[in-house]
């Protein structure tokens, strides 16, 4: 028994142990390459440990953690994405003149927080994970502090995240007062038997929704998103857009399933309103942007809105659709930010739309990856985003969520406009700015994401089976 | 499997021409020609071997699983209608490559990649019998067309390409909702969830629901066709696209809308189609007259031709909703004849633009003297467009009017007025471009051998359709009777609708 516990905790232990090792090494040498190598090895080992964990599933650890197929799927996803982000970050962090090494340490703690979130079965672990993640992100966002809007973004994130954490805590407290438990399953059981919508519980859940809504950047808690996306170092933005959101979504999906939120009309109303608001606000505000990072920020708001549709789908289909959509969104976002990261130079992030003018004619392969990512975000066939969006519409119609499906369709059309605007900039006549050279590793990562986007778009069958298998565990 | 090859050859050819485009300007053109010729030959072989064989109306079919968890399969099949449309697809495809030989000089690799991928999307649309697969190809042809317009188009190309993409994408999504809803209705009726067209046929549902679902499909097809209130994207897209883009748009993309009506809307929703028929016919007549009127008023040569398409496509929807054999035969000939004649007009407009660098017909005039060969081509296809007997369009429009006369005399009479409109705009076109005062500053070269080859093949096609249409009608006969059967089953005998 104790051995299985350790086995299940091994991803945590490795991800928590590596930064300790990094700190020890920093005491002797600040050679970035060595530390970078250690980080890659650490993440690879963590990924490997996830594989060895498979036979003991499902396994619960006290009341705190649950290791089932769903959390393992997210473990793999989080660690693998972090691995890719780490590789991409190398060139970017090297531009930093002052200490670079702590970047890796904070990245690891952020990954640790995300992993805890994905496996949490209890409010205590949830809060622990969320705070570990957030505090690491404060530092990471401000990492290039020599640049003005980095600090601005970090302070913005710090204040809003603290407030939202307070809301979350308060909400948890109220739910605890109402149900007498911190455990998700126990809360679920109590809610089944007792009256669901006492003012106390409703207030508790609404406050939790504020906290979670902030992390996922749902309207009306989205204000920080564009500024943070713009101000943070590109690899950190990538991390926020993929890993951090994925982990929070993993928690939300699990929690919502346990409390059977899709049966309660109050929840249905809340989620519907927030989803529709997020879709429309995200897409409409993206139209006027001239900054690629901000466009992607608003697009992420809209995408999280789409994703909420799956919460209201009654059967496991919703869960599977959500997982597929998250995966396709992560791959796509990784591709898009990978390109932005690649084009960043020492003192200038290529984030203005004008920087991308004519990219296709100069660097066709890079522009192709970007185009694929944008088409995937727009949900055009041959890309992962198409199957993802199809799956959302599919499950939405199956559950008769006509309002949300209509909103989704309408927003796909609105979204198309600004994605096309970026694409047509990529293909317009050449602009004079030259981009720095690209490393082999970056190319491999980008090639991999491009392949992922297309593969999931054409042959999603195998992956869908895998999701069905894992979510069934 | 041969049907899969038809698609794969084009996809692979597209990728290959993109790659080779880095080293050579000519290689992509040759690769495109080779892959299109291969497809055409393959198609003719299939046609020759399979004619009269096969199960039911399908000459050849291929089915394999694609995404089994959704009940999606790679289900391709061809009948007479698909065969005819595919033939014209590859012929126009070949011509598109040939006419771009001089016009397109930048990024020829990517250009031909786009051409071939559009054509493979169109091939997929004409072959798919799985509704998801159909939607997949339906969307697939949009992106390369968007690139074609937005990169190689004229001055206002970005605006036109957005408009084109957003119109078609929005209407396509409505169709997607209908497809998925149909899937769930059929699934809960029968227990097996599938996007298979043959199994979705005859799905039992309430007439209201059927009508709503049909509207979803119609949204996609009527925008593509286009029918008048939804035609707004067409003049921009057609006018701003490069010549090859206009040819493919007018010749092929519009036909996918008509094909969708015949293949999906009528058989899937026969009852709802019958109740929609009066509206459909009115839309058709409005399109005929309105398109003709606007065509007459245009000064931009390509916009003029674009509006003639609106008018001609009005005949298609009119004929489809007449629900009888003659009208249907007319529709099928119209689809092909219009592809040839309008394709030819766009090609001529492109050739003229290469010489005089304007599309404004007020600046033209007296070109006949300097360009006698091109002038006679203009004359032939303008006459085809107005429906001169002996050329394909005459057969088509005559059949449609005759068929419509049986089911609705008033509509038929009104639509006939469209022929007068066609005469007016065609003659105005001839007069403005070819006759009148000559601009003596222009020193223009008549058609080159390549251009003559292109034009000659189109002339042969349009004459063939006009003089010997029987072969086409025979090929399409099973489809026509099949579609009419599905309609007849829901119409009570003696209602006078089907004669």
Which sequence of SSEs, written as H and E, runs from N to C of chain A? Answer: HHEEHHHHHHHHHHHHHHHHH
Distance between the terminal alpha carbons of chain A, to the nearest Å?
A: 19 Å
Strand order of the largest sheet of chain A: 1-2
Quaternary status: heterodimer
Could you please describe the fold and organization of this structure?
The complex is a heterodimer of chains A (473) and B (499). Chain A has 473 residues and is mainly α. Chain A folds into two domains: 1-159 and 219-250; 264-473, no CATH class. Chain A is built from 19 helices and two strands. In chain A, strand 1 (59-61) and strand 2 form a beta hairpin. Chain B has 499 residues and is mostly helical. Chain B has 20 helices and two strands. Chain B has a two-stranded antiparallel sheet. In chain B, a hairpin with a 4-residue loop joins strand 1 (60-67) and strand 2 (72-78). The longest helix of chain B has 34 residues, at 157-190. The two termini of chain B are 39 Å apart.
Describe the SSE topology.
The complex is a heterodimer of chains A (473) and B (499).
Chain A (H helix, E strand, L loop, with lengths): L1 H27 L3 H22 L5 E3 L3 E3 L1 H26 L7 H18 L3 H19 L6 H32 L4 H10 L5 H18 L7 H8 L2 H25 L6 H23 L4 H17 L7 H28 L15 H4 L1 H15 L5 H15 L3 H25 L13 H19 L2 H12 L1
Antiparallel strand pairs in A: 1-2
Helix pairs in contact in A: 1-2, 1-4, 2-3, 3-4, 3-10, 3-13, 3-19, 4-5, 4-10, 5-6, 5-10, 6-8, 6-9, 9-10, 9-12, 10-13, 11-12, 11-17, 12-13, 12-17, 13-15, 13-16, 13-18, 13-19, 15-17, 15-18, 16-17, 16-18
Chain B lengths: L1 H19 L5 H25 L9 E8 L4 E7 L1 H24 L4 H20 L3 H10 L1 H11 L4 H34 L6 H4 L6 H18 L8 H8 L2 H26 L1 H28 L3 H20 L4 H32 L10 H4 L1 H15 L5 H16 L1 H26 L14 H19 L2 H21 L9
Antiparallel strand pairs in B: 1-2
